[in-house]
Amino acid sequence: MKSALSPEIREVVEATHYRPSISVIMPFEPKMSGKAELAQQLKFAVDKVDREIRKNYQDDLAGLVMQKLKKIVKNLNYNTFKKSIAIYVSPVFEKVLYLDIPMEEKIMVDGSFEIRDLLYAKKELHNYLVLVLSGKWSKVYLGDYSTFVKVKSNVPDHIAAFENDIPERVTNFSDPAYRKEVMLEKFLRHTDDGLKFLVQAYSLPVFIMGTKRILGHFKALTKNEKNIIGYIHGNYEEATETELGDALRPYINDWKKVKMEVLHHQLEKAADAGKLATGMKDVWKQASRRRGRLLVVEKNFMYAAEKGGSDDVIYTLSEPYNKFSYIKDAVDDVIEKILEQGGDVEFVEEDMLKDYGRIALIQYY
Q: What is the model's pLDDT at position 340?
């Protein structure tokens, strides 16, 4: 589930924070809309920023930032084939991004840049592993939405490799069916060991394909259950890669469900290891201590807060509050902390994390 930030977005994330920071995100398709129409929409946006910034900041500081914003707007590239723009300006930083993704208009004047919307729109990579089992062999594929690439495990992929590795008491046993079952179990255990190695290497969800009988055996002995998203029953011994893809497509099309199962498994694993922070205050504390590997947060969750006596402590905002310790949205600040530290962020739908206080942080371990 790991996704890299583009160098341009990372530049914004890592920019020095200095108030006021302005974020202007809006549709921008010069090839679809006339230049005059876009220029008018931009003027409205600039005027809105001007009104907001002068309400809360001194004239000299507000004037400096507005001058930089107007210069950027004046020099925008109207020959682009992109769909949106994101403009970031502060007294010490300025950046404009031309985006391939359509965006709704959003204007923010705050102490940090608005990154959340760009992360919402990051490309969702449908990557996964597929283990195809028969009674005689196994195959592993690295898949995405449309292709398969066969990958090599570090264990034998055919049951014949274990013919001479049967205990003496079984070798002399008169029941061939029993001997066959022992070989099958040994083969499946080694296959599961190989799958564990691939899961550690790729960190991807896994689908298992095979007959109901074979999958029943495998399910009873696997140690990779927390990485297995689904078992797909069928006889795939003669299946082509195209046919395997067709069988998988209904599962891949519901990628949100796949993604949530993967995240829940990761959260449970981190909790078992004592490496999971939940709720805004605990997440803030661990993120401030640079322990965050993966932040999982509900899309629309926001949290107004006040800074405490140290950098790793915040309190729920209460009236009256000190404007110098006020945090408009601690969630956005935590998102930037995690990204700056080289971690990742995943958004989920509302109520998906109700048992975790709407936000959870998997720490390094």
A: 78
The pair of structure tokens assigned to 30 is: 């010069």
Summarize pLDDT for 164-184 with one digit per residue, the tens.
655 555 445 556 677 778 888
| CATH of the structural domain 7-120, one choice from 3.30.960, 3.40.1350, 3.30.700, 1.10.8 | 3.30.960
CB contact burial 163-189 (16+ within 10 A = b; e otherwise): eeeeeeeeeeeeeeeebeeebbebbbb
Residues of the chain with CATH 3.30.1330.30: 263-363
CB-based burial, 222-256: b 16+ in 10 Å, e otherwise: bebebbbbbebeeebeebebeebbebbeebbeeee
Rounded Cα–Cα distance for residues 21 and 260 (Å): 33
128-253 maps to which CATH number? 3.30.420.60
**Burial class of residue 304 (count of CB atoms within 10 Å of its CB; 0-12, 13-18, 19+):** middle
* Domain boundaries for CATH 3.30.420.60 within the chain: 128-253
**250-280: pLDDT as tens digits:** 888 888 888 888 899 899 989 999 999 999 9
CATH H-level superfamily of 263-363: Ribosomal protein L30/S12 (3.30.1330.30)
Distances from the Cα of 164 to the Cαs of 134, 167, 177, 179, in angstroms? 20, 9, 16, 12
Q: Which of 32-36, 61-65, 159-163 has the highest mean pLDDT?
A: 61-65
- Residue ranges of E strands in the chain: 21-27, 84-90, 93-99, 106-110, 128-133, 138-143, 148-151, 206-210, 228-233, 276-278, 292-298, 305-307, 314-316, 326-327, 344-348, 359-363
The pair of structure tokens assigned to 101 is 């993704």
CA 164, CA 168: separation in Å to the nearest integer? 10
Domain with CATH 3.30.960 in the chain: 7-120
Contact 202, 218 (CB under 8 A): no
The one-character DSSP state at 358 is T
| Single-letter amino acid code for the residue at 346 | E
**For position 172, what pLDDT does the model report?**
52
